[in-house]
Amino acid sequence: MKQSKNHFFFFDNLFPQNFFIIFKIMASVIQNHDSQISIRSDIRWFPQLIYTLTSELMEEIHNMEQFLVKLHNIYAFLSQISFFIMCQEHFNQSHNDFDKNVIVALSTVLFYSVFGYFSTRVRDIYQGNRARTGTHRNPSFINYLKWFCKIVLEWAKAVVIVLCLREQGIHYDPKLSYSIVTFLYYLCTERIFVEVFPQLVEAYNFQSLDSLEHLYVPLVMNTIAITAGLLLALYSFYMNNSILVLLAMYFAVYLRIKDAYFNYYEILVAEREIFSSFIVATRKDIEKWDDICAVCLNNMSKARITPCNHLFHPYCLKQCLRNSFYCPLCKQHFLETRRANK
User: Which of 36, 82, 273, 298 has its Cβ near the most Cβ atoms within 10 Å?
Assistant: First the structure.
């Protein structure tokens, strides 16, 4: 018994877990087949086996891709470097010099990363000072002066870093067209700007976006990046017909399409579906409940009634839906309740 146990321990470490998943699927399919019919006389189970294995394999690949997308920095770097290499081929007509294209693309990522890092620092300085001074009163002139000095200091550091890189022999003199296209793509794909741009749009309070700027804006940014990547990939594939273009399309186009659909579009549709299902509370309903909004703890002149009979401000309810689809009070899942009532 001890020897047999060690034997299975060896195989458990030798093969990846995915192989055992496949073996379990095969065993379950064969086990469910009618035992009275021999495999030689009837092989109708084989298409079902192939379909099941293919479905499980595609699901595993999808999960790995979603895991890669959630590693924002790595995913952004892979899509940016792929796009920048194709841009270098197009704008500088260097289709046959792959090493040079990679070096220019890496240099572009390096210099843009300096900009992204100090943009993050400026955002953190602004949010940190705003949190300390409070959001319900206007900061004084001294606070504004401190913000300005800290921001200028951070950008001075960025200039020093760029000068040091040039002194070390890292020269970056791209064409203007290349710089414009790659910088716009960087803005649309870098995490800091995907987080900041919706906040800027929200500050203008566009009523047509229904307080869903955190989904609309990244979706538009992803659409721009996908369109640019697809056009460049098709052009690059037409010019040099290289298999590497397909790899670039995978990171710059295919994964970005999946990111836009599963992480923004589906959530956007679900949030709109849930919020539209909430009943608009009348003045009589608000007076009948005689309650305050459990999110902001203020009285309500406008409210929405959830399926679990709780009242919230419409804006507060939308802010809660950003984080989860559960009721802030009773934790009932809005989406499951809506689908169960259909």
Answer: 82
